[in-house]
# Entry
Amino acid sequence: MPCWTLRYVFPRPALRFLCGLDTEGVQHVPAAGPLILACDHLYLDPSLVQLAVQRRGMFAAKQEYSAGRGLQGLTVRRLFKATSMILMDRSGGPAAEKAIIDTAAVLLRGDAVGIFPEGTRSPDGHIHRGRTGVGRVVAVSGTPAVPVAVIGTDRILPPGKHLPRTGQVTIRFGRPVRFTEPSSQAITDAVMHAVQQLSGRTYVDSYAPIPSRGRRSRPVKGGSC
# Structure
């Protein structure tokens, strides 16, 4: 089954049922050529952003999503393969470097890549400090980044709830940002500032806690992807 069928035919009716979708600034998204979409992360963001931009692109996803066993794990792995997700190994070292190289390779083909610089869904609705993976991809590839804010998805599935409800979603695209600064941290900070300005949400200068199985998440003080 072609990946565009899964991404555009199947998700669209369900998403249209759940939310009214408004877009702002979509003219800032180039119709062709390599591009990084740097997004905040709450809920349903990859599908909604892909529907809004209507161009070939891939999103990065943490590798833990595909590590499940049994039927659920197999289903997730096949879905990720069909939808051309880039699996990001966040264990650091050579694995992190491979994730950067794989992402840069997609950009060199002229495709768009969606990245969530916060590294995980925001647990409190705030914009958290970005991990430097996005800055490293920008530095390696020389690709401009379009900041993206997805607003309203936290009301469709509020924290602690398991069933979604209908609501209105707005996706705001900023102007492409090009960087000459070689520091991946400086690039990441500039990207997150642009995302925060689009979203209007509070910026928190700490990394969002990454959930771990079997225990409550705690804020972390460092990381690169």
In short: Residues 184-199 form the longest helix (16 residues). The chain has eight helices and nine strands. Confidence is low (pLDDT under 50) at residues 1-6, 213-225.
